[in-house]
Design brief:
The protein is mainly alpha-helical and 247 residues long. Among the domains are: 78 residues, no CATH class; 85 residues. Helices cover 57% and strands 9% of the residues. It catalyses: ATP + protein L-histidine = ADP + protein N-phospho-L-histidine.
Length: 247
């Protein structure tokens, strides 16, 4: 036993010490001398306790305390995990909604949201609303530019046919490459416009994007170099009428 405990027992009105018992066990003995009225000599009274019981009680207390602390720690851990899972569930839902909005090309985030996430959703919708006109204006300008370039490209293609040898092939190849780029940008602008229209109607599941077919160079007769090329995304069939042999 620590010396401080022995001093406390001694201060309580007795002498505390550790002694060996009859079976060589460790005993905690507290002795006190009393003077009786009928006796001239003092009487010493000693109380002993086996220290093995104290050790067993202390060990049992330590085990109980360890189990309690372990249970408390596990409970706190599960509580924190549940709080993170259910507390941050609106953010996971918001991330899923953003992915769905991007896939469907919708204009804003809809649905009911908790009060903690509602300001963030409002800011996202406001940002989308501010950027939508600029994107639409840029898309329209790109489409107008592509339409404006198609007529000069058709003129260049007709003029390239009159060039001699390899020069005609080189110019025609470059004109065809430029025409493919113009057709691609026009197809993207048209697809974006169709997606915006379908999203405004609120029927995103009925979208059906149709890739534009290959653009064929229209048949041109001599002297028609100023006519515009075929509209992108449409196929033209060239029908040749049978010639009348009698004329």
């Amino acid at each position: 036993m620590p010396a401080t405990a022995l001093r406390r027992l001694s201060a309580a009105g007795g002498i505390a010490e550790v002694r060996s018992g009859p079976n060589r066990q460790s005993l905690l003995v507290v002795s006190r001398q009393l003077v009786l009225a009928s006796a001239d000599t003092p009487v010493e009274i000693s109380v002993a306790l086996d220290r093995t019981e104290l050790r067993a009680a202390r060990c049992s207390f330590n085990q109980t305390l360890a189990w309690l602390l372990t249970t408390l720690g596990l409970g706190l851990r599960f509580a924190m995990a549940a709080q993170v899972r259910f507390g941050l569930a609106p953010l996971a839902r918001l991330r899923h909604a953003l992915g769905t909005m991007q896939a469907r090309r919708e204009a804003r985030l809809g649905g009911a949201w908790p009060a903690e996430v509602e300001p963030l959703v409002s800011e996202i919708n406001a940002l989308l609303a501010r950027n939508a006109p600029a994107l639409e204006r840029s898309r329209r300008q790109a489409a107008d530019l592509a339409h404006a370039i198609k007529t000069p490209l058709a003129v260049l293609a007709n003029e390239a046919a009159a060039l001699p040898g390899t020069a005609a092939q080189a110019v025609s190849g470059q004109v065809e490459a430029m025409r493919r780029q113009v057709d691609r940008h026009l197809a993207r602008a048209r697809a974006a416009g169709e997606a915006a229209l379908i999203s405004a109607r609120g029927r995103p599941w009925r979208r059906a994007y149709r890739a534009p077919g290959p653009v064929q160079t229209p048949f041109r007769r001599p002297g028609t170099a100023g006519r515009s090329a075929a509209r992108p995304g449409r196929r033209r069939r060239r029908v040749c009428a049978p010639r009348n042999s009698g004329r």
